[in-house]
UniProtKB/TrEMBL annotation:
Reaction(s) this enzyme catalyzes, per UniProt: alpha-D-glucose 6-phosphate = beta-D-glucose 6-phosphate
Primary enzyme class: isomerase
Lineage: Eukaryota, Amoebozoa, Evosea, Variosea, Cavosteliida
Family: Belongs to the glucose-6-phosphate 1-epimerase family.
Gene Ontology CC, one term: cytoplasm
GO molecular function, one term: glucose-6-phosphate 1-epimerase activity
Gene Ontology BP annotations: carbohydrate metabolic process
Protein name, as recorded: glucose-6-phosphate 1-epimerase
Residues reported to bind substrate: R58, Q75, R80
Amino acid sequence: SLHEGENGFPFVTLQTAAGASAKIYLYGAHVATFKDSKGRDHLFMSSKAEFKQGKALRGGIPICWPQFGPGKLPQHGFARNSTWQLNDTKVEEGVTSATFLLKDSEETKKVFPHSFELHYTVELKGDEMNTVFLVKNCGSDAFDWTGALHTYFNVAAIDSTSVKGLKGFTYVDKVQDAKEFEEKGEDIKFTSQLDRVYLKGASNDVHIQDTEGTEKVTFSSWKDVVVWNPWVEKAGGMSDLGEGEWKKYVCVEAVQVSDVVRLEPQQSWSGTYAFSKL
Ligand code: BG6
């Protein structure tokens, strides 16, 4: 069932018998919290997130689609700024889930003249959150898209956090003129703004380790992994981020950008992305 949140933004709550829960807004099909049965919220939400049409919520899991990053469309596309429908909620043995739907509309056709459906399922399986993201071309022409599940993970302190599992992958460094490098280290550490697209990095599990534990992140179909923290200067320019909150999160995102996905009429693409504490 739907509840009314900040500024009247409706949200749904998922709950498992063991006590894990999630809060998901219809706006953006935005997962804002995921608390496991021990009460730990795996996701970061900004204390200054703005609940306003046309503005993305800062934190949680924004869905970037049909464009990741800057380009013809507004930054990160329109899915995160659109109100989705709640299609279905299910409680089955050990799994509680909700499926959200976004279809083309007059609004979306102005900027993206294609007919599509996005089906996004969020599942709580014990203390794991699993997502299934499906894109379907419902029109009669092919279209291309890029996208991401732009997850903000809570960390105890960014300067004692490391991201593991990306050694040997090539990355595009967005803070160094989009130059390509090979990741040499077992651990990615944070000492200044870090904004990298690890190409084909999603073929590995990624671990986010902080002083309190380790989050394991797994991917299928999604090819790339973006790792991002804005650090102090860039965070200063983000009006919807609370004071000092840049220290409290790291984004480890499931991304499809190095290969643009082309969908022929009636074709679909789906990818899964899941996380849990070790
Ligand atoms: C990241 C980009 O994925 O998203 C960053 O790599 C960007 O460059 C960040 O700043 C946040 O974007 P936005 O539009 O949500 O402020």
